[in-house]
Structure formats: C-alpha cells, structure tokens
Write a structure and sequence with these properties.
Strand content: under 5%
Distance between the termini: 11 Å
Helix content: 55-70%
Number of strands: 0
Length: 100
C-alpha cells in the first residue's frame, strides 16, 4: 500500500503546481508529514527503497546503465529533488510503462 501512496502523492503534487512550489524547499520529514495529512502515508525507508528500485527499473526500461551518467539524473540539475521526481521520474514511468 505504501508504494501506491507514494506514487499517488507524487502524481497529486505533479497535478498541483502550487503545492509543488510550496513543498519543493521543505525537508523530507515535512513533505512526508504533509503526504500523510493528504492521505498518502509512507515512511522514509519505504521512500528510499521504492524510489531507488524505480530508478533502476527506469534505467533498464530506457536501455541505460544505472550509473552516474543515467540520463534522468542529468535533468535534475537546477531543480529541487521533488520537482525532479514529479516531473521527470513520474513522466518516465508513464512513458516507459515501468511498473512499481
């Protein structure tokens, strides 16, 4: 259920530019608490495990190595991490059909 909550939360934030703008500079603990308040509870260990596994699978689906040259990481420069997740990772999941 936590993976559904995490991806539901990221998609929720992706659809709300105002919420993303509010959250992008907040700490992980603050964002996690807000996610829970919005009905999308997950823990930091669950977040770490799910996101790293997802990025590995995305690299495979994109035909890339999961290393420091992974192309999605290049899109992260100049962005906050939450912006990268909701705009780049979630879009790539949808584009490649990567499963959770």
């Amino acid at each position: 259920m936590s993976d559904e909550n995490l991806f539901g939360f990221l998609r929720h934030v992706a659809a709300r530019a105002d919420l993303l703008d509010t959250l992008k500079t907040r700490s992980m603990d603050e964002v996690t608490a807000i996610a829970e308040d919005l009905g999308y509870p997950y823990t930091k260990p669950e977040f770490d495990s799910l996101i790293w596994d997802l990025e590995r699978r995305l690299a495979t689906n994109r035909g890339e190595d999961f290393d420091p040259q992974f192309s999605l990481w290049q899109t992260m420069w100049g962005k906050y991490y939450l912006e990268y997740l909701v705009h780049d990772v979630i879009a790539s999941v949808d584009e490649t059909g990567a499963t959770r």
